[in-house]
Write a structure and sequence with these properties.
The relative contact order is 0.11. The protein has about 425 residues and is an alpha/beta fold. It has a seven-stranded parallel β-sheet, with helices on both faces. A seven-stranded parallel β-sheet has the order 10-11-9-12-13-8-14, sandwiched between helices. Helix 2 runs parallel beside helix 3, helix 6 crosses helix 8 and helix 14 crosses helix 15. The two termini are about 40 Å apart. It has 16 helices and 14 strands. The chain binds adenosine monophosphate (AMP).
Length: about 425
């Protein structure tokens, strides 16, 4: 497939060639023609898939074809200022010097520069939701001319607590607009946001490429009870190989309690859960990113989308409520091409839940023990069908066969339903 077949104008084809792109990526092949036709899109794709060009090239083409206008016509919302800057830079590179005018409105940057930009004529606004809301509330920007709204990394924006800002911003946009939503997953809360924000959207699901799949070694440790789990955790965290770890608990109270206990033992630890305000959550994440915290004790919702390359280990102190969350949890390690370790602690009576996870991922989690901390109780009698899983579990080989095989293993974005056990 060549770029020339996607319907892009000659100047953009030249820009793409100048950027050194010889072939469009999967997301570009699927998204560019539909976006050019004006459809709303829901796209599940990962960072690194070429998604920026997938939404920006059609936006630029439509802007260039229409010529100058008084108000900005494209709004791109991103979770972080770094991503906003990347998007703006890619757009400027594709559009060239005489292309559309772009403003970047992000937190942590001086207002004066942004206000100056807002006084001039603009075509594209790339913004983080919080700072854009500031400008809106002060009456410094008119979004009444927006024709295309792009929500980039929508799942991360929701993780960061931007849902209210996004809804408030969308309410200021013309209803007759195109909406392009990109997210690592289209399930759960992202799916709900997507259905409110888009109309008759086309859905595009891009599977992870094998080379993008992180190398995460998984292990299952059975425990006799809560005290035993605490001992296993102490042992795991005392390992010098643990550069940084995320420990998952089932409840907010559990996260607080465990973080307090670990702090009492002298660990550099932060808690992260939904009861904390945004400021406290940001502080916890900053401490982790800057290496001041070695351990993060978190609940599922709070840790979604967390991307810190230093996280070498994930410990599931409690099993996740949904099998799908297991995939999100262990994906917090093995970032940026590194290897990661994921330990799951489970009571013997939780074998059914473990089996549900294995069925969902299509991979058996090998059972391991820590020397001196072997479980005393024997595993409960397996339910029917468990035996086969048990044999595979020991071998650590992927599950096969119709009842277990899952072609989408490891790619949560490719599944529509949330299986429960
Ligand atoms: P993104 O997923 O948009 O962050 O893009 C990831 C990287 O892939 C960026 O460095 C892009 O410049 C690059 N890229 C995007 N599309 C292509 C393509 N068709 N061929 C080669 N590289 C690309």
């Amino acid at each position: 497939m060549a770029f020339a077949t996607l319907g892009l104008a000659p100047n953009l084809l030249q820009a793409v060639a100048d950027a050194g792109y010889t072939q469009p990526t999967a997301v570009q092949v699927q998204a560019i023609p539909l976006a050019l036709e004006g459809h709303d899109l829901l796209v599940s794709s990962q960072t690194g898939s070429g998604k920026t060009a997938a939404f920006m090239l059609p936006c630029l083409q439509r802007l260039m074809a229409a010529g100058p206008a008084r108000l900005p016509r494209v709004l791109v919302l991103t979770p972080t200022r770094e991503l906003a800057q990347q998007v703006a830079k890619a757009s400027a590179d594709f559009a060239g010097k005489r292309g559309p005018r772009i403003a970047v409105l992000v937190g942590g940057a001086p207002y004066a520069v942004q206000l100056k930009q807002l006084r001039g004529q603009l075509d594209i606004v790339v913004a983080t939701p919080g700072r854009l809301m500031d400008h809106l509330q002060r009456g410094k920007i008119d979004l009444g001319g927006i024709q295309t709204l792009v929500l980039d990394e929508a799942d991360r924006m929701l993780d960061m607590g931007f849902i209210d800002d996004i809804e408030a911003i969308a309410a200021r946009l013309p209803a007759e607009r195109q909406t392009l939503l990109f997210s690592a997953t289209l399930d759960g809360v992202v799916g709900k946001l997507a259905s409110r924000m888009t109309r008759d959207a086309r859905r595009i699901e891009i599977a992870r490429t094998p080379e993008a799949t992180p190398k995460i070694e998984q292990k299952l440790l059975f425990a006799d009870g809560h005290e035993h789990k605490l001992k296993l955790l102490d042992h795991l965290l005392s390992d010098i190989e643990v550069r940084q770890a995320v420990v998952f608990t089932a409840t907010k109270a559990g996260a607080e309690e465990l973080a307090g206990r670990l702090e009492g033992q002298g660990h550099a630890v932060e808690a992260l859960h939904g009861d904390m305000n945004q400021g406290a959550r940001n502080r916890a994440l900053r401490a982790l990113r800057e290496g001041r915290a070695r351990i993060l004790v978190a609940t599922d919702v709070a840790a979604r989308g967390l991307d810190v390359p230093g996280i070498s280990h994930v410990v599931n102190f409690d099993l996740p409520m949904q099998a799908e969350d297991y995939v999100h949890r262990i994906g917090r390690t093995g970032r940026a091409g590194r290897e990661g370790q994921a330990y799951t602690l489970a009571h013997h009576r939780e074998q059914g839940k473990v089996k549900g996870i294995e069925r969902y991922t299509g991979t058996a989690i090998p059972v391991a023990t820590l020397p001196g901390l072997e479980p005393k109780a024997r595993a409960a009698k397996p339910a029917s069908g468990w035996k086969a899983g048990e044999a595979r579990k020991r071998s650590g080989k992927p599950l096969q066969g119709r009842s277990y095989g899952n072609p989408n293993a490891g790619n949560p974005g490719a599944r529509r339903g949330r299986p429960s056990w």
